[in-house]
From TrEMBL:
GO terms for molecular function: beta-1,4-mannosylglycoprotein 4-beta-N-acetylglucosaminyltransferase activity. GO terms for biological process: N-acetylglucosamine metabolic process. Pfam families: Glyco_transf_17 (PF04724). The keyword Transmembrane applies. The chain crosses the membrane at residues 27-47. The keyword NAD does not apply. Keywords: Membrane, Transmembrane, Transmembrane helix. GO terms for cellular component: membrane. This is Uncharacterized protein.
Length: 448
């Protein structure tokens, strides 16, 4: 203000003020132009970097999250740049191939995460079981129920996750979801699924149950010829992250139980009730759950490679439960696949779920799969651009077929009484089969 104190002519003061404003406007304009120019130069420079370019392909091409409801699965997938992806594969440019491989995961995930179009049956209530503690592994009833933690590895199984969260509520105290920013196949970038689900209406009620453990990009940069390296690494990370969490929270004590497995390895309500309320015999600290393996439809049973004993060939010995004290004895505890010497029967392996987006995501990401190549991509393009929903339905039926397993699959009604003890459909699926029709190999209206 001092610079104007000597001025007596108000007009001059006004002109002076106007000149000052003009100078400010010019300075702002120059700064804005400089900022835009610098941004363009940086964009040009950084887009030369193939890793950053991959991120550009992943995150900015074909925005669709806010408009997904306007498209069918077929028309939505027609928006994926198939031709550019095929050109990248033909050129052999690994950075571009990785970008388009990551992008197709995003496209498939948008329909994989869609809420079932059938409303849940609210009149169907969760069964309640009373613990008997009569299994040979138990010495009697606990003075107070154990806390149960379940440590699972998770990929894209959204429908399965919804079913198991309903299954575990009030019986499992914490579910530790280990999720990676990279797939098992070629470390392809993937979305963190739980982060995208946790505030949606159907998943929000379970948010207090879930502890999200994330394996980020940093430790995964080193290449390896061992295709199973990622799975083993994630099992180690799952345990070390849990140990750190429990050290800070002191939530679980020595006699509490921890289960290890995948999201689709689901103990029955009866098994969980027994584990929660019954004491292991003194010499037992690890027990496998012998679950039924229907291999894609609830009307059949699969003879597995990892039964809990040879007289129960239609069981799979996962997940595996430890006392916390037993798990802390050394090494990295994980699922034992029927080798723990002790077991309890009841549950379902929800593998080979025949919802087409889920199937295609597994094809693209599982360790031994990796279906992102010229022939498969061309076939996908032809089917999505057929504009014929029957083509999609037939495609799903083809992928759901288990005829190549031959006599290893039988009708569930053919099981003997011993193997049938393992058969248990999760209650939320049993009550709401219309929400998840792929479990009966029926069309899903989300895809039409």
């Amino acid at each position: 203000m001092a610079k104007y104190s000597k001025l007596e002519d108000g007009t001059i003061l006004t002109v002076k003020k106007s000149n000052q404003i003009s100078k400010k406007i010019k300075l702002i304009a120059i700064a804005a132009i400089s900022f835009v120019t610098l941004g363009l130069l940086c964009s040009f420079f950084f887009m030369k970097d193939p890793v950053i370019k991959q991120g550009y392909i992943d995150n900015t091409e074909h925005r669709f999250n806010d408009t997904i409801g306007k498209y069918t699965f077929m028309t939505h997938m027609q928006r994926y740049p198939f031709d550019k992806a095929l050109e990248a594969i033909k050129s052999g440019n690994e950075a571009e191939i990785a970008g388009y491989r990551s992008l197709i995961l995003d496209y498939l995930f948008e329909f994989n995460r869609q809420t079932p179009s059938v409303i849940p049956d609210l009149s169907c209530k969760k069964p309640v079981f009373k613990a008997t503690c009569s299994e040979p592994i138990f010495s009697g009833k606990r003075d107070s129920p154990a806390k149960i933690g379940l440590l699972i590895q998770f990929g894209f199984e959204v429908d399965t996750l919804l079913i198991i969260l309903h299954q575990y509520r009030d019986l499992v105290d914490k579910i530790f979801i280990l999720e990676s920013t990279r797939t098992h196949f070629k470390n392809t970038k993937k979305p963190l699924v739980w982060e995208r689900l946790k505030y949606s209406p159907e998943f929000l009620p379970f948010s207090d149950m879930v502890v999200h453990l994330v394996v980020d990009d940093a430790p995964l940069a080193a290449a390896s010829d061992d295709m199973w390296q990622m799975e083993r690494y994630q099992e180690h990370q799952r345990w070390s992250k849990f140990v750190e969490w429990n050290k800070d929270t002191k939530y679980f004590t020595d006699s509490d139980l921890l289960g290890f497995g995948d999201a689709d390895e689901v103990p029955s309500l009866n098994v969980l009730t027994e584990l929660k309320n019954c004491k292991f015999r003194d010499e037992i600290f690890v027990v496998d759950v012998g679950i039924w393996f229907p291999m894609g439809t609830i009307y059949q049973a699969f003879r597995t490679d990892f039964p809990v004993e040879f007289t129960l060939p239609y069981t799979l010995g996962d997940p595996t439960f430890y006392t916390l004290a037993g798990a802390m004895k050394g090494g990295v505890p994980s699922r034992q696949r029927g080798t723990s010497a002790h077991h309890i029967l009841g549950g379902m392996h929800m593998s080979n779920y025949c919802y087409l987006p889920t199937i295609l995501l597994k094809d693209m990401t599982c360790t031994e799969c990796g279906m992102f190549d010229k022939d498969n991509l061309q076939l996908m393009k032809e089917r999505f651009f057929s504009n014929d929903s029957q083509v999609i339905q037939k495609w799903q039926q083809e992928r759901c077929s288990v005829s190549h397993w031959g006599t290893r699959i039988i009708d569930v009604q053919q099981l003997d009484n011993n193997n049938r003890q393992a058969v248990s459909v999760p209650w939320y699926l049993e009550c709401n089969k219309g929400m998840f029709p792929s479990w009966e190999h029926l069309p899903d209206s989300r895809l039409l």
